């Protein structure tokens, strides 16, 4: 599957944030600061997962419609992926 540039950019940003948290730990930063950053990372990852699932779902549904197949199974799979990520 090809992933959009937006997804790659989001994950690169998360990577930078995670490296920042590691530096915070090395610098013995306050717990609240570390947890705040980790919460931001978690939110960014959750949004990225949603984007990946929605892009995949859209692609699968379009393909199913073009080929004359029902898309119900793709929708069900997308919902399961989202539920698993929570």
Automatic annotation (TrEMBL):
Pfam families: Trns_repr_metal. Gene3D superfamilies: Metal-sensitive repressor, helix protomer. InterPro entries: Metal_Tscrpt_repr, Metal_Tscrpt_repr_sf. One of its GO terms (biological process) is negative regulation of DNA-templated transcription. GO terms for molecular function: DNA binding; metal ion binding. This is Metal-sensitive transcriptional regulator. It comes from Paenisporosarcina antarctica.
């Amino acid at each position: 599957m090809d992933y959009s540039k937006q997804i790659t950019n989001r994950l690169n940003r998360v990577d930078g944030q995670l490296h920042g948290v590691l530096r915070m730990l090395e610098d013995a930063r306050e717990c609240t600061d570390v947890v705040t950053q980790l919460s931001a990372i978690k939110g960014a990852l959750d949004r990225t997962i949603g984007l990946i699932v929605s892009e995949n779902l859209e692609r699968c549904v379009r393909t199913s419609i073009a080929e004359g197949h029902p898309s119900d199974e793709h929708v069900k799979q997308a919902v399961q992926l989202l539920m698993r990520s929570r």
